[in-house]
Amino acid sequence: CCHYSSEIFKEPIKELMRKGGGEIADEKWFSNLSTKGNTGAASIFIMLEELMYSGKLKTGDKILCMVPESGRFVTSFMQLTVEGSAEGETKSYPLRKIEAPELIVEKTETSEWLIRQLAQIWIDFETELLKVPIITKIHEGKISIEEYKLLLKDLRQQVIDGSQWISRAASNIDIELFELRSAFIKHTATEHKDY
User: Fold this and answer.
1) Which of 45, 92, 100, 163 could cross-link with 191 by S-S, CB 3.0 to 4.6 Å?
2) What Å distances lie between residue 142 and 85, 86, 96, CA to CA?
3) Is the pLDDT of residue 71 over 70?
4) Taking every annotated instance into account, which residue ranges of this chain make up the domain Beta-ketoacyl-[acyl-carrier-protein] synthase III C-terminal (predicted)?
5) Which residues are CB-neighbours of 115 under 8 A, at least 6 positions away?
6) Are residues 33 and 19 in the same domain?
7) Distance separating alpha carbons of residues 126 and 55, to the nearest angstrom
8) Is the Cα torsion angle 31, 37, 39, 40 positive or negative in sign?
9) Has this prediction a pTM greater than 0.70?
10) Residue 92 within any structural domain of the chain
């Protein structure tokens, strides 16, 4: 797969690959520029999806992906290997011991009580979560694609809303707790990148 924004760049790319000793035969090139146009930053993912469903791939094939940055200062590569069908193959994930998250707090009677309460809530939550049928299927390696898609249906909105809520909360934290405010903002950025 090679992303280029115009056919005008195809020959120079091929020429540079020849000069670098990495020539690839024409029949092994895959581009959807002529059928989809320049789809921008998403183009490599759109191409990979099309290639995956094209019927051209077989187990063991190597896919070299090349994405030149618009200013031609940076070029990214990734190599993928085609795996066989996952049908019939299941991998189970053993249940791990549920432990309270590690928290470092001031040693006061109130904070220690609060930490015990929060730790128990966390342990109860994880214990109950492991009893949810779809989570059980995940751990047993028996979840179907349809069930997985259903599970993820609202993930994007949850992540978007969650990062906004965390940002709002961060803006209300006193300056005396600046480190905590920074931790909230950092977590917001992580949440935003999750999707």
Assistant:
1) 163
2) 15, 12, 18
3) no
4) 23-66
5) 103, 105
6) yes
7) 42
8) positive
9) no
10) no
**One domain, residues 15 and 68:** yes
Q: What DSSP line would sit under the chain, residue for residue?
A: -B--SSGGGHHHHHHHHHHTT----GGG----HHHH---GGGHHHHHHHHHHTSS---TT-EEEEEEE-TTSS-EEEEEEE-----TT-----PPPPP-PPP------HHHHHHHHHHHHHHHHHHHHHTTSHHHHHHHHT---HHHHHHHHTTHHHHHHHHHHHHHHHHHTS-GGGHHHHHHHHHHHHHHHHH-
Same domain, 28 and 69: yes
pLDDT digit string, tens, across residues 158-181: 666 777 878 888 888 888 777 878
Residue tagged 């992906």 (tokens): 65
Residue 48 pLDDT class (50, 70, 90 cuts): confident
User: How many folded domains does the chain comprise?
Assistant: 3
Question: Domain residues for 107?
Answer: 103-152
pLDDT for the residue 81:
92
| Contact criterion met (CB below 8 Å) for 103 and 116 | no
Phi, psi at 79, each rounded to 5°: -120, 130
What does the pLDDT average to over 29-39?
72
